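Long-time lurker, first post. I've been practising inverse folding by hand and with some scripts of my own, and I keep getting stuck on stretches where the structure tokens seem ambiguous. Below is the full token string for one chain I'm working on. Before anyone asks, I'm not after the true native sequence, just a reasonable design that respects the backbone. If someone could post their per-position residues I'd love to compare against what I wrote down in my notebook.
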């Protein structure tokens, strides 16, 4: 039986992370206007959100700068142009993907940067490099979290080894990541128990990043809260790759912390997120994403299906089940 107080009581340790610019940027190649970003920053301030993720620290040698917006690279000067010195309670985050960033050169000392938190994203086979990135960011003065991606395809024994290695690193937060939107709340509970074992052993916090392929991103995030997970990712209107993420307006409406205010989120959604959809940005639950979630597959095939404007769902199902 889940501890009721964990769902109904005010939890001061809860941290809400807005990932709209980063995960949402995967929808529109990060082409957000400065007006959009500034208004999002102000909405997060008014809503009481704890961290705002500005995007990736992409390696310019790997990614053509002309094909992406500013949030793909997250230069310090660009972030500072939005937040100034950020003398607020809202902290700034960026994501550094293992193998896709030049972290030694592009992540500067914390004393020279407006960024507070480096979020390292890694697959299991990349853990040694992830640890080096974590150590590098810590030496530079940052808070650091680590997202282990695609855990729904991982052996529990391998996951435990990875968590033990990460536990010995100076990382602050382990993130449970449902990359394919394939997990159910009962599975989240079991996974959280595994993560908690190592978090308690090494004095780390736990985070949750959910995808909405089976319309369970919010449910899985609530489950994680009840399992003692404190760091919670969400995006405005659930904007994110493919089926999207846990919606900020749902999450803040659920949390009992009086510091959070859902009204500024609703205002921003009305003014800006609806406009993005009108301008052609496409994300959110649809049948093709359900299929890849059911089959525990990466949604890249469903994303391509969407881009091509296809509606032959049954044919698509036959195609992807043959790959399973």
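-- Answer (accepted) --
I ran through it position by position. Result:
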């Amino acid at each position: 039986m889940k501890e009721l107080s964990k769902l109904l009581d005010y939890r001061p340790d809860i941290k809400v992370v807005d990932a709209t610019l980063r995960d949402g940027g995967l929808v529109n190649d990060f082409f957000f206007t400065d007006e959009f970003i500034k208004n999002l920053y102000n909405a997060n301030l008014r809503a009481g959100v704890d961290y705002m993720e500005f995007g990736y620290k992409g390696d310019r040698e790997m990614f053509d700068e002309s094909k992406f917006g500013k949030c793909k690279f997250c230069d310090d000067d660009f972030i500072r142009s939005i937040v100034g010195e950020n003398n607020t309670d809202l902290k700034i985050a960026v994501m550094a993907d293992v193998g896709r960033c030049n972290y030694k050169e592009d992540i500067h000392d914390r004393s020279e940067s407006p960024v507070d938190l480096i979020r390292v994203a890694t697959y299991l086979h990349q853990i040694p490099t992830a640890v080096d990135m974590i150590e590098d960011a810590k030496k530079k003065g940052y808070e650091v979290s680590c997202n282990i991606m695609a855990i729904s395809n991982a052996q529990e024994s391998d996951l435990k080894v990875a968590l033990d290695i990460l536990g010995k690193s100076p990382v602050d937060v382990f993130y449970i990541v449902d990359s394919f939107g394939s997990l159910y709340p009962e599975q989240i509970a079991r996974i959280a128990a595994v993560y908690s074992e190592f978090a308690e052993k090494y004095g780390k916090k736990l985070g949750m990043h959910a995808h909405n392929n089976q319309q369970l991103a919010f449910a899985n995030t609530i489950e994680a809260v009840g399992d003692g997970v404190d760091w919670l990712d969400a995006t405005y209107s659930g904007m994110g790759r493919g089926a999207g993420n846990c919606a900020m307006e749902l999450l803040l409406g659920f949390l009992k912390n009086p510091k959070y205010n859902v009204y500024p989120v609703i205002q921003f959604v009305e003014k800006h997120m609806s406009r993005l959809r009108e301008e052609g940005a496409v994300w959110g639950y649809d049948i093709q994403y359900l299929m890849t979630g059911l089959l525990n597959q990466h949604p890249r095939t469903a994303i391509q299906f969407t881009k091509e404007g296809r509606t032959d769902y049954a044919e698509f199902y036959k195609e992807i089940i043959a790959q399973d």
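A couple of notes from the structure itself: The beta strands are 15-18, 51-56, 91-97, 117-122, 143-148, 173-177, 205-209, 231-234. The radius of gyration is 19 Å. Happy to go over any region you disagree with.
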